[in-house]
Amino acid sequence: MTFELIDNNQVYCWLRHVLEPRYRVIAEPNAAYFSEFLFRYCVLDGNQLLHEFSGDFRTLQPGQLVEQANTFVARLNKTGITDTCAVEQLQSRSANPPIVASRLIPLRTDATYFSSGRAAFTYLLRDVVKPRRVWLPTYICWSLVSAMQTRFPETQLLFYPVDRQLNCQWPTNTDSGDAVVFVHYFGHACSKPDVPDHCVLLEDISHVLTPGLPINGQHAFGSLRKTFRIADGGVLLGRYHPFYESDDQLAVRLRWRARDWRDLREAENMMDRGWTMSDMSSQSMSRMLSVNVAAAAEQRQRNQRFLERHFPVGNPMISYRADEVPLLQNVLFSDTTTRDSLRSFLASRGIFSSIHWPLHPLLAQQANSVDSTEAAWLEQHVLSIPVADDFNETQMAFICDAASEWQRSGV
Fold this sequence. Notes:
Layout: H1 11-19, E1 24-27, E2 38-45, E3 48-56, H2 64-79, H3 86-94, E4 111-114, H4 117-129, E5 133-137, H5 142-151, E6 156-160, E7 178-183, E8 200-204, E9 219-223, E10 234-237, H6 250-256, H7 261-273, H8 282-289, H9 293-310, E11 315-316, E12 328-332, H10 336-348, H11 361-365, H12 373-381, E13 382-386, H13 393-409
Parallel strand pairs: 5-6, 5-7, 7-8, 8-9
Antiparallel strand pairs: 1-2, 2-3, 4-10, 9-10, 11-12, 12-13
Helix pairs in contact: 1-2, 4-5, 6-7, 9-13
Protein backbone atom coordinates (compact mmCIF):
# COMPACT_ATOMS: atom_id res chain seq x y z
CA MET A 1 0.00 0.00 0.00
CA THR A 2 1.12 3.61 -0.47
CA PHE A 3 1.92 5.82 2.50
CA GLU A 4 -0.93 8.32 2.73
CA LEU A 5 0.01 11.10 5.13
CA ILE A 6 -3.07 11.99 7.21
CA ASP A 7 -1.85 12.57 10.78
CA ASN A 8 0.79 14.76 12.43
CA ASN A 9 2.27 11.73 14.19
CA GLN A 10 3.14 10.15 10.81
CA VAL A 11 5.28 13.00 9.52
CA TYR A 12 8.74 11.74 10.49
CA CYS A 13 8.24 8.29 8.96
CA TRP A 14 6.63 9.84 5.89
CA LEU A 15 9.55 12.24 5.37
CA ARG A 16 12.02 9.36 5.55
CA HIS A 17 9.91 7.37 3.11
CA VAL A 18 9.59 10.08 0.44
CA LEU A 19 13.00 11.78 0.78
CA GLU A 20 15.55 9.07 1.55
CA PRO A 21 18.05 8.07 0.24
CA ARG A 22 18.21 11.23 -1.89
CA TYR A 23 18.20 13.30 1.31
CA ARG A 24 18.77 12.40 4.95
CA VAL A 25 16.05 12.86 7.56
CA ILE A 26 17.00 12.61 11.24
CA ALA A 27 15.07 12.97 14.49
CA GLU A 28 16.53 14.70 17.51
CA PRO A 29 14.16 13.58 20.28
CA ASN A 30 14.45 14.75 23.86
CA ALA A 31 16.09 11.90 25.76
CA ALA A 32 14.27 12.55 29.02
CA TYR A 33 11.25 10.55 30.12
CA PHE A 34 7.78 12.15 29.77
CA SER A 35 8.94 14.27 26.82
CA GLU A 36 7.19 12.27 24.11
CA PHE A 37 5.29 15.30 22.80
CA LEU A 38 8.43 17.29 21.94
CA PHE A 39 9.87 16.83 18.45
CA ARG A 40 12.67 18.02 16.18
CA TYR A 41 13.04 16.64 12.64
CA CYS A 42 15.92 17.78 10.42
CA VAL A 43 16.20 17.34 6.64
CA LEU A 44 19.76 17.41 5.32
CA ASP A 45 21.42 17.38 1.93
CA GLY A 46 24.82 15.95 2.81
CA ASN A 47 25.82 18.07 5.81
CA GLN A 48 23.64 21.02 4.79
CA LEU A 49 20.50 21.56 6.87
CA LEU A 50 17.62 22.21 4.47
CA HIS A 51 14.76 22.43 6.93
CA GLU A 52 13.84 21.80 10.55
CA PHE A 53 10.44 20.82 11.92
CA SER A 54 10.24 21.30 15.70
CA GLY A 55 7.73 21.96 18.40
CA ASP A 56 5.26 20.32 20.78
CA PHE A 57 2.58 17.95 19.49
CA ARG A 58 0.21 19.19 22.20
CA THR A 59 0.12 22.67 20.67
CA LEU A 60 -0.33 21.56 17.04
CA GLN A 61 -3.65 21.82 15.27
CA PRO A 62 -4.91 18.62 13.58
CA GLY A 63 -3.10 18.32 10.25
CA GLN A 64 -0.84 21.33 10.89
CA LEU A 65 2.45 19.41 10.68
CA VAL A 66 1.09 17.38 7.77
CA GLU A 67 0.49 20.58 5.81
CA GLN A 68 3.96 21.92 6.64
CA ALA A 69 5.60 18.67 5.52
CA ASN A 70 3.65 18.51 2.27
CA THR A 71 4.51 22.15 1.48
CA PHE A 72 8.21 21.58 2.13
CA VAL A 73 8.43 18.39 0.03
CA ALA A 74 6.58 20.05 -2.85
CA ARG A 75 9.02 22.99 -2.74
CA LEU A 76 11.99 20.62 -2.51
CA ASN A 77 10.84 18.65 -5.55
CA LYS A 78 10.34 21.88 -7.47
CA THR A 79 13.79 23.31 -6.75
CA GLY A 80 15.66 20.09 -7.62
CA ILE A 81 18.70 20.59 -5.41
CA THR A 82 21.89 19.03 -6.80
CA ASP A 83 22.28 15.40 -5.79
CA THR A 84 25.05 14.22 -3.50
CA CYS A 85 26.75 10.86 -3.22
CA ALA A 86 24.56 8.58 -1.11
CA VAL A 87 27.38 6.05 -0.88
CA GLU A 88 29.69 8.61 0.73
CA GLN A 89 26.96 9.55 3.20
CA LEU A 90 26.51 5.91 4.18
CA GLN A 91 30.26 5.40 4.49
CA SER A 92 30.70 8.44 6.71
CA ARG A 93 27.89 7.28 8.98
CA SER A 94 29.17 3.70 9.17
CA ALA A 95 32.62 4.99 10.18
CA ASN A 96 31.24 6.37 13.46
CA PRO A 97 32.14 4.44 16.64
CA PRO A 98 29.56 1.92 17.89
CA ILE A 99 26.81 3.16 20.19
CA VAL A 100 26.41 1.71 23.67
CA ALA A 101 22.84 2.22 24.88
CA SER A 102 19.83 0.49 26.36
CA ARG A 103 17.90 0.93 23.11
CA LEU A 104 19.69 -0.85 20.26
CA ILE A 105 18.53 -1.16 16.66
CA PRO A 106 16.80 -4.56 16.32
CA LEU A 107 18.60 -7.33 14.50
CA ARG A 108 17.27 -8.39 11.11
CA THR A 109 17.52 -11.35 8.79
CA ASP A 110 18.26 -11.19 5.07
CA ALA A 111 14.62 -11.91 4.26
CA THR A 112 11.37 -9.93 4.34
CA TYR A 113 8.14 -11.79 5.07
CA PHE A 114 4.63 -11.45 3.69
CA SER A 115 1.30 -13.23 4.08
CA SER A 116 1.70 -15.04 0.74
CA GLY A 117 3.99 -15.50 -2.23
CA ARG A 118 1.76 -13.35 -4.40
CA ALA A 119 1.98 -10.57 -1.79
CA ALA A 120 5.79 -10.74 -1.92
CA PHE A 121 5.61 -10.74 -5.73
CA THR A 122 3.33 -7.70 -5.70
CA TYR A 123 5.61 -5.72 -3.40
CA LEU A 124 8.65 -6.66 -5.49
CA LEU A 125 7.04 -5.41 -8.70
CA ARG A 126 5.38 -2.30 -7.29
CA ASP A 127 8.00 -0.94 -4.92
CA VAL A 128 11.34 -2.43 -5.99
CA VAL A 129 11.58 -3.40 -9.67
CA LYS A 130 8.75 -1.35 -11.24
CA PRO A 131 9.02 -3.07 -14.65
CA ARG A 132 7.51 -1.89 -17.92
CA ARG A 133 6.59 -5.46 -18.91
CA VAL A 134 6.56 -8.81 -17.12
CA TRP A 135 7.34 -12.21 -18.68
CA LEU A 136 5.92 -15.35 -17.08
CA PRO A 137 6.46 -18.97 -18.19
CA THR A 138 3.51 -20.68 -19.86
CA TYR A 139 3.72 -23.43 -17.23
CA ILE A 140 2.80 -21.39 -14.18
CA CYS A 141 0.64 -21.28 -11.07
CA TRP A 142 -2.51 -19.20 -11.49
CA SER A 143 -1.67 -17.01 -8.48
CA LEU A 144 1.01 -14.98 -10.27
CA VAL A 145 -1.16 -14.43 -13.33
CA SER A 146 -4.05 -13.36 -11.12
CA ALA A 147 -1.77 -11.05 -9.14
CA MET A 148 -0.73 -9.34 -12.37
CA GLN A 149 -4.33 -8.99 -13.54
CA THR A 150 -5.53 -7.65 -10.18
CA ARG A 151 -2.67 -5.39 -9.12
CA PHE A 152 -1.03 -4.40 -12.41
CA PRO A 153 -3.72 -4.29 -15.10
CA GLU A 154 -1.80 -1.55 -16.96
CA THR A 155 1.48 -3.51 -17.07
CA GLN A 156 1.89 -5.65 -20.18
CA LEU A 157 1.99 -9.35 -19.33
CA LEU A 158 3.88 -11.61 -21.74
CA PHE A 159 4.71 -15.33 -21.74
CA TYR A 160 7.59 -17.54 -22.84
CA PRO A 161 7.14 -21.28 -23.62
CA VAL A 162 8.09 -24.18 -21.35
CA ASP A 163 8.20 -27.76 -22.68
CA ARG A 164 7.09 -30.95 -20.93
CA GLN A 165 10.64 -31.56 -19.63
CA LEU A 166 10.37 -28.10 -18.03
CA ASN A 167 13.00 -26.56 -20.28
CA CYS A 168 12.42 -22.89 -20.94
CA GLN A 169 12.53 -21.12 -24.27
CA TRP A 170 13.79 -17.81 -22.94
CA PRO A 171 12.33 -14.69 -24.54
CA THR A 172 14.57 -12.98 -27.11
CA ASN A 173 12.41 -9.96 -27.95
CA THR A 174 12.83 -8.28 -24.58
CA ASP A 175 13.17 -4.58 -23.93
CA SER A 176 15.02 -2.59 -21.32
CA GLY A 177 12.97 -2.52 -18.15
CA ASP A 178 11.41 -5.97 -18.67
CA ALA A 179 11.16 -8.40 -15.75
CA VAL A 180 11.45 -12.14 -16.44
CA VAL A 181 10.12 -14.63 -13.87
CA PHE A 182 12.00 -17.91 -13.53
CA VAL A 183 10.50 -20.82 -11.56
CA HIS A 184 12.49 -23.50 -9.74
CA TYR A 185 9.90 -26.12 -10.62
CA PHE A 186 9.16 -28.48 -7.71
CA GLY A 187 12.62 -27.99 -6.24
CA HIS A 188 14.41 -28.67 -9.53
CA ALA A 189 16.29 -26.19 -11.73
CA CYS A 190 16.07 -27.53 -15.27
CA SER A 191 18.11 -24.87 -17.02
CA LYS A 192 20.02 -21.77 -16.06
CA PRO A 193 18.19 -18.60 -17.02
CA ASP A 194 19.45 -17.01 -20.23
CA VAL A 195 18.08 -13.48 -20.34
CA PRO A 196 19.74 -10.26 -21.56
CA ASP A 197 21.44 -7.97 -19.07
CA HIS A 198 18.84 -5.27 -19.69
CA CYS A 199 16.18 -7.51 -18.07
CA VAL A 200 15.60 -8.06 -14.37
CA LEU A 201 15.41 -11.73 -13.38
CA LEU A 202 12.84 -12.56 -10.69
CA GLU A 203 13.28 -16.06 -9.27
CA ASP A 204 10.26 -17.86 -7.85
CA ILE A 205 11.64 -20.05 -5.05
CA SER A 206 8.23 -21.21 -3.81
CA HIS A 207 9.20 -24.85 -4.36
CA VAL A 208 12.66 -24.60 -2.80
CA LEU A 209 12.92 -25.76 0.81
CA THR A 210 16.52 -24.60 1.26
CA PRO A 211 16.92 -21.54 -0.99
CA GLY A 212 20.34 -20.13 -1.72
CA LEU A 213 21.13 -16.88 -3.45
CA PRO A 214 19.37 -16.04 -6.72
CA ILE A 215 21.29 -17.46 -9.67
CA ASN A 216 21.95 -14.05 -11.16
CA GLY A 217 22.13 -12.24 -7.83
CA GLN A 218 18.97 -10.20 -8.47
CA HIS A 219 15.61 -10.87 -6.77
CA ALA A 220 14.04 -14.02 -5.31
CA PHE A 221 10.55 -14.41 -3.85
CA GLY A 222 8.20 -17.24 -3.03
CA SER A 223 5.35 -18.78 -1.10
CA LEU A 224 6.24 -20.52 2.15
CA ARG A 225 2.97 -22.47 2.40
CA LYS A 226 4.13 -24.76 -0.38
CA THR A 227 7.24 -25.90 1.47
CA PHE A 228 6.15 -25.65 5.12
CA ARG A 229 3.02 -26.91 6.85
CA ILE A 230 1.82 -23.44 7.84
CA ALA A 231 -1.33 -21.41 7.30
CA ASP A 232 0.23 -18.43 5.53
CA GLY A 233 3.57 -17.03 4.51
CA GLY A 234 5.59 -15.55 1.69
CA VAL A 235 9.17 -14.34 1.46
CA LEU A 236 11.32 -11.89 -0.47
CA LEU A 237 15.07 -12.37 -0.07
CA GLY A 238 16.65 -9.12 1.08
CA ARG A 239 16.01 -6.43 3.68
CA TYR A 240 13.01 -4.35 2.65
CA HIS A 241 10.60 -2.14 4.56
CA PRO A 242 7.08 -2.65 3.20
CA PHE A 243 3.97 -0.83 4.33
CA TYR A 244 1.68 -3.77 4.95
CA GLU A 245 -2.00 -3.69 4.10
CA SER A 246 -4.57 -4.53 6.78
CA ASP A 247 -5.85 -8.11 6.80
CA ASP A 248 -8.58 -9.82 8.82
CA GLN A 249 -6.75 -13.15 8.24
CA LEU A 250 -9.99 -15.11 7.99
CA ALA A 251 -8.47 -17.56 5.51
CA VAL A 252 -5.57 -18.12 7.91
CA ARG A 253 -7.98 -18.64 10.79
CA LEU A 254 -9.93 -21.20 8.75
CA ARG A 255 -6.76 -23.12 7.90
CA TRP A 256 -5.79 -23.39 11.56
CA ARG A 257 -9.31 -24.52 12.46
CA ALA A 258 -9.71 -26.82 9.44
CA ARG A 259 -11.42 -30.17 10.06
CA ASP A 260 -10.45 -31.70 6.73
CA TRP A 261 -9.39 -30.91 3.17
CA ARG A 262 -12.74 -29.21 2.42
CA ASP A 263 -12.00 -26.42 4.91
CA LEU A 264 -8.52 -26.08 3.42
CA ARG A 265 -9.97 -25.82 -0.09
CA GLU A 266 -12.45 -23.16 1.04
CA ALA A 267 -9.60 -21.23 2.66
CA GLU A 268 -7.76 -21.31 -0.66
CA ASN A 269 -10.87 -20.08 -2.45
CA MET A 270 -11.27 -17.25 0.07
CA MET A 271 -7.68 -16.17 -0.55
CA ASP A 272 -8.10 -16.35 -4.33
CA ARG A 273 -11.23 -14.19 -4.12
CA GLY A 274 -9.48 -11.48 -2.18
CA TRP A 275 -5.96 -11.22 -0.73
CA THR A 276 -3.85 -8.44 0.72
CA MET A 277 -0.20 -7.48 0.73
CA SER A 278 0.02 -8.07 4.46
CA ASP A 279 2.47 -9.50 6.95
CA MET A 280 2.96 -13.14 7.87
CA SER A 281 1.12 -14.34 10.98
CA SER A 282 3.09 -14.99 14.16
CA GLN A 283 1.73 -18.54 14.45
CA SER A 284 3.01 -19.48 11.00
CA MET A 285 6.35 -17.79 11.57
CA SER A 286 6.84 -19.61 14.87
CA ARG A 287 5.94 -22.96 13.34
CA MET A 288 8.22 -22.45 10.34
CA LEU A 289 11.19 -21.54 12.51
CA SER A 290 10.71 -24.71 14.55
CA VAL A 291 11.22 -26.98 11.50
CA ASN A 292 14.46 -28.90 11.24
CA VAL A 293 15.03 -28.04 7.59
CA ALA A 294 17.90 -30.47 7.04
CA ALA A 295 15.88 -33.40 8.44
CA ALA A 296 12.82 -32.37 6.43
CA ALA A 297 14.90 -32.23 3.25
CA GLU A 298 16.31 -35.71 3.83
CA GLN A 299 12.85 -37.17 4.46
CA ARG A 300 11.45 -35.65 1.25
CA GLN A 301 14.37 -37.00 -0.72
CA ARG A 302 13.80 -40.49 0.74
CA ASN A 303 10.07 -40.32 -0.02
CA GLN A 304 10.66 -39.24 -3.60
CA ARG A 305 13.27 -41.93 -4.20
CA PHE A 306 10.89 -44.57 -2.83
CA LEU A 307 8.14 -43.46 -5.23
CA GLU A 308 10.61 -43.33 -8.11
CA ARG A 309 11.53 -46.97 -7.47
CA HIS A 310 8.15 -48.43 -6.51
CA PHE A 311 5.28 -46.37 -7.96
CA PRO A 312 4.03 -48.88 -10.56
CA VAL A 313 2.50 -46.67 -13.26
CA GLY A 314 3.38 -43.59 -15.29
CA ASN A 315 6.77 -41.97 -15.76
CA PRO A 316 8.46 -39.41 -13.49
CA MET A 317 8.47 -35.90 -14.95
CA ILE A 318 11.72 -34.88 -13.25
CA SER A 319 15.05 -36.57 -12.60
CA TYR A 320 16.08 -34.89 -9.36
CA ARG A 321 19.74 -34.36 -8.63
CA ALA A 322 21.15 -35.65 -5.35
CA ASP A 323 21.30 -32.15 -3.81
CA GLU A 324 17.75 -31.16 -4.82
CA VAL A 325 14.81 -31.36 -2.43
CA PRO A 326 11.57 -32.40 -4.20
CA LEU A 327 8.30 -30.66 -3.49
CA LEU A 328 6.20 -33.32 -5.23
CA GLN A 329 6.64 -36.44 -7.31
CA ASN A 330 5.07 -35.54 -10.64
CA VAL A 331 4.12 -38.55 -12.75
CA LEU A 332 3.18 -38.37 -16.44
CA PHE A 333 0.56 -40.63 -18.05
CA SER A 334 -0.15 -41.48 -21.66
CA ASP A 335 -3.68 -40.07 -21.60
CA THR A 336 -6.03 -38.04 -19.42
CA THR A 337 -8.56 -40.84 -18.89
CA THR A 338 -5.97 -43.11 -17.31
CA ARG A 339 -4.63 -40.30 -15.12
CA ASP A 340 -8.09 -39.30 -13.90
CA SER A 341 -9.10 -42.90 -13.21
CA LEU A 342 -6.07 -43.43 -10.98
CA ARG A 343 -6.61 -40.09 -9.27
CA SER A 344 -10.20 -41.03 -8.38
CA PHE A 345 -9.12 -44.47 -7.16
CA LEU A 346 -6.42 -43.02 -4.91
CA ALA A 347 -8.95 -40.53 -3.49
CA SER A 348 -11.25 -43.43 -2.61
CA ARG A 349 -8.35 -44.81 -0.52
CA GLY A 350 -7.78 -41.50 1.25
CA ILE A 351 -4.86 -40.42 -0.96
CA PHE A 352 -5.43 -36.99 -2.46
CA SER A 353 -3.24 -36.06 -5.40
CA SER A 354 -3.30 -32.85 -7.42
CA ILE A 355 -2.63 -31.46 -10.91
CA HIS A 356 0.17 -28.96 -11.38
CA TRP A 357 -1.04 -26.88 -13.14
CA PRO A 358 -4.22 -26.27 -15.12
CA LEU A 359 -3.63 -23.84 -17.97
CA HIS A 360 -4.70 -20.32 -17.08
CA PRO A 361 -7.60 -19.04 -19.25
CA LEU A 362 -5.51 -16.04 -20.30
CA LEU A 363 -3.07 -18.37 -22.07
CA ALA A 364 -5.92 -20.10 -23.86
CA GLN A 365 -7.15 -16.69 -25.03
CA GLN A 366 -3.69 -15.85 -26.39
CA ALA A 367 -3.24 -19.13 -28.27
CA ASN A 368 -2.56 -17.26 -31.54
CA SER A 369 0.40 -15.35 -30.09
CA VAL A 370 1.70 -17.61 -27.29
CA ASP A 371 2.82 -21.22 -27.72
CA SER A 372 1.36 -22.93 -24.66
CA THR A 373 0.80 -26.36 -26.23
CA GLU A 374 3.32 -28.09 -23.96
CA ALA A 375 1.87 -26.51 -20.83
CA ALA A 376 -1.59 -27.59 -21.97
CA TRP A 377 -0.28 -31.12 -22.55
CA LEU A 378 1.12 -31.26 -19.02
CA GLU A 379 -2.25 -30.23 -17.61
CA GLN A 380 -3.84 -33.25 -19.27
CA HIS A 381 -1.14 -35.82 -18.38
CA VAL A 382 0.45 -34.98 -15.01
CA LEU A 383 -0.45 -36.27 -11.55
CA SER A 384 1.28 -34.81 -8.49
CA ILE A 385 1.93 -37.21 -5.61
CA PRO A 386 2.78 -35.72 -2.17
CA VAL A 387 6.21 -36.45 -0.68
CA ALA A 388 5.98 -34.09 2.32
CA ASP A 389 8.30 -34.68 5.25
CA ASP A 390 5.23 -35.45 7.41
CA PHE A 391 5.20 -38.84 5.65
CA ASN A 392 7.61 -41.74 5.81
CA GLU A 393 8.13 -45.01 3.97
CA THR A 394 4.91 -46.44 5.43
CA GLN A 395 2.80 -43.78 3.70
CA MET A 396 4.82 -44.06 0.50
CA ALA A 397 4.28 -47.82 0.46
CA PHE A 398 0.56 -47.26 1.06
CA ILE A 399 0.44 -45.01 -2.01
CA CYS A 400 2.30 -47.54 -4.16
CA ASP A 401 0.13 -50.43 -2.96
CA ALA A 402 -3.03 -48.49 -3.82
CA ALA A 403 -1.67 -47.72 -7.30
CA SER A 404 -0.83 -51.40 -7.78
CA GLU A 405 -4.35 -52.36 -6.72
CA TRP A 406 -5.76 -49.94 -9.31
CA GLN A 407 -3.42 -51.38 -11.93
CA ARG A 408 -4.53 -54.94 -11.20
CA SER A 409 -8.19 -53.98 -11.30
CA GLY A 410 -7.85 -52.90 -14.92
CA VAL A 411 -10.05 -49.85 -14.32
